[in-house]
Amino acid sequence: MGQMMDQPGVAERLSEAELDRLTGEIGSASAFLADLRSAVAERVVGQRRMIDRLLIGLLTGGHVLLEGVPGLAKTLAVRTLADALHVTFRRIQFTPDLLPADLIGTLIWDEKTGEFVPKRGPIFSNLVLADEVNRAPAKVQSALLESMQERQVTIGDTSYPLPKPFLVLATQNPIEHEGTYPLPEAQVDRFMLKVRVDYPSRQEEREIMRRMVTERLAPISSVVHPEQILEVRDRLPEIYLDERIENYILDLVLATRDPKGAGIPDIREWVEYGASPRASIYLARAARAYAFLEGRPYVLPEDVQQVAPDVLRHRVVLTFQAEAEQVSSEAVIERLLETVPVP
Question: The domain that contains 26 carries what CATH number?
Answer without folding.
Answer: 1.10.8.80
